[in-house]
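In this section we walk through a basic example: taking a raw amino acid sequence and producing a predicted 3D structure, encoded as discrete structure tokens. The instruction is simple. Fold the sequence below.
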Amino acid sequence: YEVTLTATANKQDIQPQETDVVFVIDGSGSMAYVPGMDRKPGPWEQSRWEIALTALKTMVSGLGDNVNCSYVVYSGNSAKGYSSITEIQNARQLPKGGTPLTAGVTQGAEVLKNSTNNRVMIILADGETSDGILWPMWPTKQADAFKKNGEIYTVGFGYESENFKKLATDEEHNYTADNAEQLADSFQKISQDILGLISDPL
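The resulting token sequence is shown next.
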């Protein structure tokens, strides 16, 4: 005898999980420089700022309808929310000033504080936080509170720091990139992780 078993999944049984993502983006003055150098772009060159926003726009375009994106830019001594990457690109005052990372992480957590969906924060930085007086002050408490019910990715653009890495959920949630290609690759890998959150396994 030959017995054949088949299983059919009812589409109604597979419910996509909404995911809320907040991008916390470094808008400090150094983002106006070309990668790996402390100078502004020459002809045919792009700044870290331009490269980052292009890479983010590509990433967001591939996330789909079940991912809701919000944006926070931290610069000077504060952080501000934006409705889209295009709005950020049109902000004439960016990039400028210092790197108030604590304000960025705090604002990012505030954006998603009432979310009942999957929660993801992606922090992009190209250098050390400017918080603190005698020594750098890191938003560890804010990050730890968010990670109780969410995930944090850190992306260092031409920058690495153990304290920055510790803001991430774990080592696999930390990325570094030195150029446009590596940054796009980092965001692509994060995008794949996020897309994996929106579907329930059978």
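Looking at the output, two observations stand out. The CA atoms of residues 82 and 116 lie 21 Å apart. The radius of gyration is 19 Å. In the next section we compare this with other chains.
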